[in-house]
UniProtKB/TrEMBL annotation:
It comes from the Eukaryota. The keyword Transferase applies. It comes from Capsella rubella. Keywords: Amino-acid biosynthesis, Aminotransferase, Branched-chain amino acid biosynthesis, Pyridoxal phosphate, Transferase. This is Branched-chain-amino-acid aminotransferase. GO terms for cellular component: cytoplasm. The lineage of its organism: Eukaryota, Viridiplantae, Streptophyta, Embryophyta, Tracheophyta. NCBIfam families: ilvE_II, PRK13357.1. PROSITE patterns: AA_TRANSFER_CLASS_4.
Length: 381
């Protein structure tokens, strides 16, 4: 497979692509024809997507980025290839011993046409932290950002029009080297792909109804709850399925040690609003330090709210006026109700509330309509 380091800008440019093989004249001609038509399509400003009906399911884009580590832990420069299946050794660390991390960030298209990434350095640092915890090699912060940037630029036509969503980027780091005995893999792959998305929940922008899970904890002290290990997600899928089958939007987990404190939702952090005070569970290793969480806390402090990061007893859910969840996929999502032990507590939702105020400032910064005075936004096109 050949390398592709730049994006086709015109239909006369035929990129060299990994996996592009010609067999005989006829086959070669049809491959070239298909290739020209692809290149023509890729000249279009937007991909052929129903932008008004995007949810959060995988849409196949054009390219993905990948780089592998060598035995000294350094990653090669990396390359773009056509989005598609990857090949793995059956003894790969990821398949046998779960050495895998995910990340999630978004590219937004502003009204002025600029394409922006939101705090990608924090995703890169979180992946590095996770890699240390999981005994894996990881790419540098710059290399991580470069891989994400290349992926966005190569898939630019998949970045939704302003106000119609974003291109969700999924960086993966996994043990691709083979090991039969329990051991860290000898080689790691860093891969980035993307998919245009809009609302994470089927509820759209309507308020969420959460269910407090009392049997299955998400994480435990000393475990991997504080990093984005892929192994954190499989064990809660059944609890999520159960809650969803009963009409709830998602699950709110309790701490494994006492079962008395709330922790977080399946892929988002949680906040309670009580008067001028905003309360959220502290990150002590069992909760993911969300980048949206961190950003919302900073915005709330700037606005003059008091923010408390501490243990939050499940009983406190009764005292909150508003509740909201934060996450890259979720955004800042209003929670309309939480059900705990068959008791449903309802919360205020709608405009002119703290949740809405925080959401509109965050979205404004992410999409470039509010000036970024904090150096959070990286303009890549
Ligand atoms: C378990 C969990 N908590 C919280 C979050 C929110 O984190 P972020 O705001 O960085 O997307 C995520 C999503 O990545 C998550 O998977």
């Amino acid at each position: 497979m050949a390398l592709l380091r730049c994006i086709p800008q015109s239909s006369t440019y035929l990129p060299k692509i990994r996996g592009f093989r010609m067999h005989g004249t006829k086959a070669a001609a049809s491959v070239v024809e298909e290739h020209i038509s692809r290149a023509e399509r890729e000249d279009e400003e937007y991909a052929d997507v129903d932008w008004d009906n995007l949810g959060f399911s995988l849409v196949r884009t054009d390219y993905m980025f990948a780089t592998k580590s060598s035995s000294d832990g350094n990653f090669d420069q990396g390359y773009l290839s056509r989005y598609g299946n990857i090949e793995l050794n059956p003894a790969a660390g990821i398949l046998n011993y779960g050495q895998g991390l995910i990340e999630g960030l978004k590219a937004y298209r502003g009204e002025d046409g600029r394409v922006l990434l939101f705090r990608p350095d924090l995703n890169a640092m979180r992946m590095k932290m996770g890699a240390e915890r999981m005994c894996m090699h990881s790419p540098s912060v710059q290399h991580f950002i470069e891989g994400v940037k290349q992926t966005v630029l190569a898939n630019r036509r998949w970045v939704p029009p302003p106000g119609k969503g974003s291109l969700y980027l999924r960086p993966l780091l996994f043990g691709s080297g083979a090991s039969l005995g329990v051991a860290a893999a000898p080689e790691y792959t860093f891969l980035v792909f993307g998919s245009p998305v809009q609302n994470y929940f089927k509820e759209g922008t309507a308020a969420l109804n959460l269910y407090v899970e009392e049997v299955v904890p998400r994480a435990y002290l000393g475990g991997t709850g504080g990093v984005k290990a892929i192994s954190n997600y499989g064990p809660v899928l059944e609890a999520m399925r159960r809650a969803k089958s009963r009409g709830f939007s998602d699950v709110l987990y309790l701490d494994a040690e006492t079962g008395k404190n709330i922790e977080e939702v399946s892929a988002s952090n949680i906040f309670l609003v009580k008067g001028n005070t905003i309360v959220t569970p502290a990150t002590n290793g069992t909760i993911l330090g969300g980048i949206t969480r961190k950003s919302v806390i900073e915005i709330a402090l700037d606005l003059g709210y008091k923010v408390e990061e501490r243990s939050v007893a499940v009983e406190e859910l009764k005292d909150a006026r508003e509740v909201f969840c934060t996450g890259t996929a979720t955004g800042v999502a209003s929670v309309g109700s939480i059900t705990f032990q068959n008791t449903r507590t309802e919360y205020k939702v709608g405009d002119a509330l703290v949740t809405q105020q925080l959401r509109s400032i965050l979205v404004g910064i992410q999409t470039g309509s509010i000036q970024d005075t904090k150096d959070w936004v990286l303009e890549i096109a």
